[in-house]
């Protein structure tokens, strides 16, 4: 039996996942968490075979949370289930210690396979993400400006270039608009840019954002 902790701040998403997984004989959802702090608390209190983790939750989240989990329970497999399909998110998640990466859009057809594979100790990424990772590794940008961004800054950067407003981003990341604005200014400074238009052009050039 694969004992799972679902960590996602959206109640509807957690309920939907439980309904899907309740039908599978060898998988059991034994706990839920709605933010990073609750995720860590549950992991410290109970043992699991796998954490199904969303990247964007209130409190500690993203790759920072992945690293913290792996530091406290190194052998606990982590499968990322997220709305982010950019190659940079997958790469950063895997480097942080996640064994699998799956987008919510493709979860329906691949979720069970991914859970079983990651729980058994093998890595899992979708074909689309694998192709993106291969492209990234073939043409690395280790010295590129976006590599200087923190994980939170990169998250804000990606949302800005996708057309989200500061208010949209604040709501999505559970931050204040002032904090998001500060992140934006730091991003512009680190990447030596003057505007969001500069960011968008950079994102297209570096395959972080596909041109429309």
Q: Can you describe this structure in just a few lines?
A:
With 212 residues, this protein is an alpha/beta fold. Helices cover 52% and strands 13% of the residues.
Care to describe what's here?
With 212 residues, the protein is of the alpha/beta class. The protein has helices spanning 11-21, 36-45, 62-72, 87-96, 107-119, 127-138, 151-161, 166-173, 177-190, 196-205; strands at residues 2-7, 27-33, 50-53, 78-82, 100-103, 124-125. The protein is 52% helix and 13% strand. The chain has a 6-stranded parallel beta sheet with strand order 2-1-3-4-5-6, sandwiched between helices. The protein is globular and about 55 Å long.
Structural class by secondary-structure content: alpha/beta
Tell me, rounded to a whole number, the average pLDDT.
85
SSE arrangement, N to C: EHEHEHEHEHEHHHHH
Q: What's the total number of strands?
A: 6
**Global morphology:** globular
Helical percentage: 40-55%
Question: The biggest beta sheet, please?
Answer: 6 strands, parallel
Give me the number of helical elements: 10
Roughly how many Å is the radius of gyration? 17 Å
Main-sheet strand order equals 2-1-3-4-5-6
Calculate the terminal CA-CA distance, rounded to whole Å: 44 Å
Oligomer designation: single chain
Instruction: Please mark out the parts with pLDDT under 50 across 5 or more consecutive residues, or reply none.
Output: none
Instruction: Work out the strand percent.
Output: 5-15%
């Amino acid at each position: 039996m694969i004992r799972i902790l679902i960590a996602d701040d959206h109640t509807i998403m957690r309920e939907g996942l439980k309904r899907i997984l309740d039908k599978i004989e060898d998988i059991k959802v034994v706990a839920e968490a709605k933010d990073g702090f609750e995720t860590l608390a549950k992991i410290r209190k109970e043992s699991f075979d796998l954490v199904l983790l969303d990247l964007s939750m209130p409190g500690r989240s993203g790759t920072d949370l992945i690293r913290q989990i792996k530091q406290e329970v190194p052998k606990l497999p982590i499968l990322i289930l997220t709305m982010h399909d950019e190659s940079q998110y997958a790469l950063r998640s895997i480097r942080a210690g996640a064994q699998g990466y799956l987008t919510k859009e493709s979860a329906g057809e691949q979720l069970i396979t991914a859970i079983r594979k990651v729980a058994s100790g093998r890595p899992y990424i979708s074909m689309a993400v694998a192709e993106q990772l291969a492209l990234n590794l073939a043409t690395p940008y280790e010295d590129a400006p976006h590599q200087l961004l923190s994980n939170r800054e990169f998250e804000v950067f990606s949302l800005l270039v996708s057309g989200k407003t500061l208010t949209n981003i604040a709501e999505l990341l559970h931050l204040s608009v002032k904090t998001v604005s500060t992140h934006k200014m730091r991003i512009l400074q680190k990447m030596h840019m003057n505007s969001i238009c500069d960011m968008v052009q950079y994102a297209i050039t570096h395959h972080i954002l596909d041109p429309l």
